[in-house]
Amino acid sequence: MGTHEASVVEDPTDQVLDGTGEPSCSACPHTWSGHDALGRRFCAATHDHGWDRGCICR
Fold this sequence. Notes:
This protein is of the alpha+beta class and about 60 residues long. It has one helix and two strands; from the N terminus they run E-E-H.
C-alpha cells in the first residue's frame, strides 16, 4: 500500500487579508493563525482540491 503526502501550507500566500490585515483562510472563515497543524492540512487539502466541505472545527 502506497503513502500519500498531503500538502502542508506553512505560508498562506494565497490567502486573503481580513479587515485587521491578518491572513484568513481561503477554505474556511477563520484566520490562518487560528489553525493548528491538522487544521492547516485539512484546509490546504480543501483548497487544493477545490472541495466545499467547510472547516474541520465544525
